[in-house]
Amino acid sequence: MNERILLKARGVGKRYNCTWIFKDVDILIHKGETLGVMGPSGCGKTTLAKILVGLIPCDRGQIYYRDKNITGMTGKKMAKIRPELQLVFQDYRQALPPHLKIGFMLGEPLRVKKQESKKAISEKVLDIIEKCQLGKGTYDKYPNQLSGGEAQRVALARALLVKPKLLILDEVTSGLDIETAEEIFKLIKKMDIDNQMAKILISHDRKLINTYCSTMIIMCGTSNAECDN
Ligand SMILES: Nc1ncnc2c1ncn2[C@@H]1O[C@H](COP(=O)(O)OP(=O)(O)OP(=O)(O)O)[C@@H](O)[C@H]1O
Ligand SMILES: [Mg+2]
């Protein structure tokens, strides 16, 4: 596979019960590229994002990450790849565990790796908190003590901390004012030091897609086609 290709999906489909949500999605994304995904509510954009990062399986088609076929990959093999594929959820407030302080929660993926001291991890966490323009006090706050924009930046900090190769942003700016949304995109650009991080931007906002994406796909769903295979 071409070295610049980061992720390739061919003929991907997903069904729930006996209804296909989508049946034949193709995606090709290169290193450093930003791909836009649009489509009406319910056509399966979030579902596709979850499939691409390996959170749920697809029911047809193939997904390749770099030169590996990761379709249906689970266990240790997928655990190794998963940090490289980060999804920031549309419903980011629910994605933050309510009982964990932000600083502790952000340090979790680094603690799991068991490669760094406690001190080094908390320094890294404080650094990302600062880079994401969150006050230092955020470290000791719980998710319910954050504003919408702050919670969104925390969700983004969590994804960026593990230095992903692909970052999927699922309507992350839809609940925010335009200035905050722009700040978030500036921040992502700043964090992507070597311009190698690929991004998938899921949005209903064509202006946003036109501004930040070099290519886009439009999903239209299957009109709830009944499963015949
Ligand atoms: N776990 C599930 N079980 C059954 N149906 C589901 C499940 N998750 C999603 N769906 C259905 O799949 C369809 C696609 O949902 P999805 O959330 O991917 O749409 P979307 O394009 O992201 O919509 P929106 O623009 O509103 O966010 C919807 O009809 C939804 O009800
Ligand atoms: Mg969605």
Structure description:
This protein is an alpha/beta fold and 229 residues long. Helices cover 35% and strands 24% of the residues. It has a 5-stranded parallel sheet with strand order 6-7-8-3-9, with helices on both faces. A 4-stranded antiparallel sheet has the order 2-1-4-5, with helices on one face. It is built from 8 helices and 9 strands. It is globular. The protein has one domain: P-loop containing nucleotide triphosphate hydrolases (Rossmann fold), CATH 3.40.50. Helix 5 crosses helix 6 (148-161). Strand 1 (5-16) and strand 2 (19-30) form a beta hairpin. It has helices spanning 45-52, 75-81, 92-95, 102-113, 118-131, 148-161, 178-191, 206-212, and strands at residues 5-16, 19-30, 34-38, 60-65, 68-69, 85-88, 166-170, 198-202, 215-218. Adenosine-5'-triphosphate binds at residues 16, 21, 39, 41-47, 90.
In a few lines, what is going on in this structure?
This protein is α/β, with parallel strands linked by helices.
Topology diagram in text:
Blueprint: E1 5-16, E2 19-30, E3 34-38, H1 45-52, E4 60-65, E5 68-69, H2 75-81, E6 85-88, H3 92-95, H4 102-113, H5 118-131, H6 148-161, E7 166-170, H7 178-191, E8 198-202, H8 206-212, E9 215-218
Parallel strand pairs: 3-8, 3-9, 6-7, 7-8
Antiparallel strand pairs: 1-2, 1-4, 4-5
The structure holds adenosine-5'-triphosphate and magnesium ion.
Adenosine-5'-triphosphate (ATP) binds near residues 21 and 44.
